[in-house]
Amino acid sequence: MFRTALPLAAVAAIGLSAAPASAGFYSGEQLLEICTTKRATPDYLEKTYECVAYITGAVDAFNTTREVNKLKSCIPGKVTVGQLREATVDYLLANAKERDKSASTLVFAATRKAWPCPKGKAKSRR
Q1: What is the CB neighbour count within 10 angstroms for residue 69?
Q2: With contact defined as beta carbons under 8 Å apart, do 55 and 85 qualify?
Q3: What are 72-98's pLDDT values in tens digits?
Q4: Strands (E), the chain
Q5: How confident is the model at residue 16 (pLDDT cuts 50, 70, 90)?
Q6: pTM (2 decimals)?
Q7: Neighbouring residues of 37: CB distance < 8 A, sequence distance ≥ 6
């Protein structure tokens, strides 16, 4: 038993310490690559879901933060997941020099550009 457990423990320890944590899971460049996967590729569906899941998760996190701080979301409720994806991809394509930043930072910038908060009207009515 120890002969099997020791190598597994060593591999696990190496895996846990191999790479330092960074500012985000994806860079803007990586997110753009995922979100622009060509339809003809075998992993198109997987990459499309990965793209949309990442963007919607980031937007949900931003909205939760705004809510906790008693601010309303500036993204209209009628905005679709497709529109969030399109705004993000458009922003990434137009801002190539920023793509080394964390993808979540760039999703935030993309949504703020597409749906800016009105000045002084973002306070919650709670």
Answers
A1: 10
A2: yes
A3: 889 999 999 999 999 999 999 999 999
A4: none
A5: very low
A6: 0.75
A7: 43, 44, 47, 48, 51
